[in-house]
Amino acid sequence: MTRSRAFIRPALVSCLAAVLALVSCGPAGTPHEPKRYTIEQFLETVGLSGLSFSPDGSRVLVTSDWSGIPNAWAIPVDGGEPVALTASATDSRFALDWFPRDERILVAGDQGGNELTHVFVRETDGTLVDLTPGDRLRAVYHGFTRDEGAFVVGTNERDPRFFDLWLYDVRDYRRTPLYEDREGLQFADISPDRRLLAFTRPDTRVNSDVVIHDVTTGTSRTLTPHEGDIVHRAETFSPDGSELLVLTDEDDEFLKLVAIDVATGARRVLVDEDWDVTGARFSPSGHFLAVSINADARTVLRLFSWDGFREVPLPRLAEPASIEALEISRADDRIAFYAHSARMPGDLFVADLPDGEPRRLVRTLSPSIDPDDLVEGRVVRFASWDGTQIPGILYVPHQARTDRKVPALVWVHGGPGGQSRIGYRGLIQYLVNHGYAIYAINNRGSSGYGRSFQLADDGRHGRDDLKDCIASKKLLADTGVIDAGRIGIIGGSYGGYMVLAALAFAPDEFAVGVDIFGVANWERTLASIPPWWESMKRSFAREFGTLDDADYLRSISPLFHAEAIRRPLFVLQGANDPRVLKIESDEIVAAVRRNGVPVEYLVLEDEGHGIRKKANRFRAYRAILEFLDRHLAAAGRETDPTG
């Protein structure tokens, strides 16, 4: 029997009244008047990702956009200037891993955002060697073996739909075949003795199995046989290889972490929370296990010693922030981690184990920006059109007042099935700083709130989830500091689709729309998804139907209803996007322009499904703000005639 846990727990429901208490409510108040910052100042903020200790623990390998484009950098843990390890000026280079016993590193990169990623080794003399050459292949790095003598890479060179596994020798990069995939399995881990491979066999978002393949016998078996819809997601083998750590929502609404005996199938629960456990990873020595939890759109990271499974306290930070992406040195004497908040974009810290004070290595926020001028997002829920409680993250500009109401945007995340989360978002903070309130809605269908909530929009995309977005306008108006006549909608990818759906299917609800590489025609999108998404087709079929459901797909595709769009529209598109093809945006722009509606269209020629380069973020963010200033800030003012 499934243990029912409602996704709303009263003790955790953020009250709108509590949020409003933080907002000045009239001319007698003393609102904080923030300095307004330019896009140049915002883009001085540093982006960091990835973590890997050097073999001696003296440096940390990261990806950073210090040069304006993502490249690999080494940061000394005892102080000193970061050192650039790659220096690409055109295509991004993402740091993957330090070799366990020498100065070589592994990096990844594609061409202009086309997602045909290759894996490279940076030799000690600085040269890059492509380990996965080819014009049309995509490669995925999966990590070093526990004995550190080889590393695993998957490529789709044999069949673009599936990723075969290769074992690369650390000495000469000679590769040997490890597994030939013919069904779309998702690789998770290789056992310490290299004998067993663990995979997830995906079916839909709410149903999957774990498969164990024995390399020595060439046989595979399902470790998690079951009936009905249950998620089983392989994470990692235990240090001795006897157990596999698995995420599952069996008998529950939420994912928990269990250890399954590989030989017998016996299970024991390790971490069970009132939220989804989202990941588990061992330290290189196997002594520690880091577990991440998605707690109401905020990451909570817990560290355990594997021996006895006792929790290990993590360092306390002087500033409120979530600890994420923790890495432990090979000697178990030091940790590195990122700390995130709305005012801290991901500062890099190190601390000595067991109880050393954290030391900040990189402060990521632009030095030109006073953190007090930024706005902390707060989780706020509302009752939607059918009574369902919908969560989201509300950002109210410091300068908002009842006698000086501000315009607002409903921000819709990507996916489907994504989630807006607490933390720093550059475009959000830029817009809020310039006077726009933002509600980052987690409409029904979002992940993080249990199985039932995630399934609630299947077969109802562009309908029930759109009604949630429309219903959120009342929440914004009820703040008393947001102008109900100046509420727009913005989103990227699936969120971009929701923007177009809102303007086409509810043309009077939102004052403007900002579509960032959004789907306009579901027929074309489903017909042209990248071949390496083969394993996701069943999930798409459950959510949207198939190409055989042409009438339904047309009914939810804004392109075929574009004649109804009459509100100003901004469209942003990457020319190399392999997920939402440029023709999607070309066609919706042309169709809306035929209505005589103001449409602004920006194509980034060297980007794909996202914006990696700072120069392109400069163009895109500034253009979005200018569009909003022209068509939203100056429009309407139905409830704020003084402006």
Describe, in plain words, how this protein is organized in 3D.
By secondary structure, the protein is of the alpha+beta class. The protein has two domains: 294 residues, Rossmann fold, CATH 3.40.50; 318 residues, Prolyl oligopeptidase, N-terminal domain (Methylamine Dehydrogenase, Chain H), CATH 2.130.10. It is 16% helix and 34% strand. It is built from eleven helices and 36 strands. It is globular, with a radius of gyration of 25 Å. It starts with 15 loop residues before the first helix and ends in a 10-residue tail after the last helix. The N terminus and C terminus are likely disordered.
List the SSEs and their pairings.
Layout: H1 16-20, H2 39-42, E1 48-53, E2 59-64, E3 71-76, E4 83-84, E5 94-98, E6 105-109, E7 118-122, E8 128-130, E9 139-144, E10 150-155, E11 164-169, E12 175-179, E13 186-190, E14 196-204, E15 207-214, E16 219-222, E17 232-237, E18 243-248, E19 256-261, E20 267-271, E21 276-282, E22 288-295, E23 298-305, E24 310-312, E25 322-328, E26 334-341, E27 344-352, E28 359-362, E29 378-383, E30 389-395, E31 406-412, H3 426-433, E32 437-441, H4 451-455, H5 464-478, E33 482-492, H6 494-505, E34 513-516, H7 522-527, H8 537-544, H9 550-555, E35 569-574, H10 582-593, E36 599-604, H11 614-633
Parallel strand pairs: 31-32, 31-33, 33-34, 34-35, 35-36
Antiparallel strand pairs: 1-2, 2-3, 3-4, 5-6, 6-7, 7-8, 9-10, 10-11, 11-12, 13-14, 14-15, 15-16, 17-18, 18-19, 19-20, 21-22, 22-23, 23-24, 25-26, 26-27, 27-28, 29-30, 30-32
